[in-house]
Amino acid sequence: MSARSWISPVAERLRTANPYVVDSALAALVLFAVSLQWIFPDEGDDRLTWQGWLIGAATAVPLVWRRRAPFATACAVSVATPAQAVYHAPPPDVMYGGIVVLYTMAALGRPWHRRLMLVGWLLGVSLTMMHKEDPQPFEYAFHLLSVVCAYGFGVLARVQRAYTAELEDRARRLERERAADTARAIAQERSRIARDMHDVLAHAVSLMVVQAEAGPVVVRSDPARAEAAFDAIATAGRDAMAQLRRILGVLKDPQAGGGPWRLPQPGVAELPGLVRQVAESTGLRVELRTCGTPRPLPPDTEVAAFRVVQEALTNTVKHAYAASAIVELDWAEDQLTLTVTDDGRGPTAGHGGHGLIGIRERAAACGGSAHTGRGPEGGFRVVVRLPATLDRQAALG
């Protein structure tokens, strides 16, 4: 087993343990190290007194409060350590308490506290060694290096703690941003699904209502026409069910591939079929005009173009009481302009329902715009401009 494999769990255990218990244990350990000369008096010839032990204990006991009051603890140890050296009964061989408080100040202290302690201890060690009997050069180096190393390890601990805190804060921010992005994506997807379901149901139900109203009128006078009306109702219902199953299939399993209900979404190419279906099912004269050269569109723009025309024709059938409608596709260099105009009664108060809101939302989602209002010769007109460049999605991403 490597040293790191057992040191890391121990360090983590100490980091999460009760700080008062850890600091009390550290103070007891330093007191034990200071008391070794009394425990083993035959190991050296230094003079031992109980006053000297009390001064030595004063360099250890304050460490119990090193994290609750780091500067006060450092001041207490900074006074007791030179006092023990001056009293010389016995002199400190190693500044155990000083090493701990220097580390603590470098790791936890305020900037001016840290600088004051570092300079004070360097000067204090140098002045104390000058008053020692026969000081050896290596003793200067040992004590000064002890001060610098303890302070350096404290700086490393402070930097590591700040770095860890920054990483944790960044992780929390990323998690919040990810949650916000997920919420936005869910809201956008719900809005898209709601628009799709509204368009599918509104279109199909409108056709079914028109045919259902016409069927009883002609059931006796023109059975063939009544039968065609009921066939149109059935066709509209089957088409609506197929599209709803497609939407629900995506909701149930968005990762699945293929399947009978995972058909491509309708696009501009399906508009002639849509116009023909509306004309045959409702009796509304619908003309499709194209200007310019058609070309491929981004998938979301393809769907938006189809749904916009579908919703505009649905509104014409439901509300306009129109006899005819014109669908125009104007292909410009960088945009497709869709215009649906009818000869009905035109806009009325409160005409901006869910359908028109959905048209505006679809256009905005694709980076386009939508305008609705009275046509140039009366009736109602819907004008939608959609970007017609394939690199639009890359630019938005």
UniProtKB/TrEMBL annotation:
User: Does this entry carry the keyword ATP-binding?
Assistant: yes
Q: Which residues form the Histidine kinase/HSP90-like ATPase domain?
A: 300-390
Give Gene Ontology CC terms.
membrane
Keywords, alphabetical: ATP-binding, Kinase, Membrane, Nucleotide-binding, Phosphoprotein, Transferase, Transmembrane, Transmembrane helix, Two-component regulatory system
One Gene Ontology molecular-function label:
protein dimerization activity
Catalytic activity reported: ATP + protein L-histidine = ADP + protein N-phospho-L-histidine
Q: Does the keyword Secreted apply?
A: no
Task: Classify the source by domain of life.
Answer: Bacteria
Q: What class of enzyme is it?
A: transferase
What protein name applies here?
histidine kinase
Query: Which taxonomic lineage does the organism of this UniProt entry have?
Result: Bacteria, Bacillati, Actinomycetota, Actinomycetes, Kitasatosporales
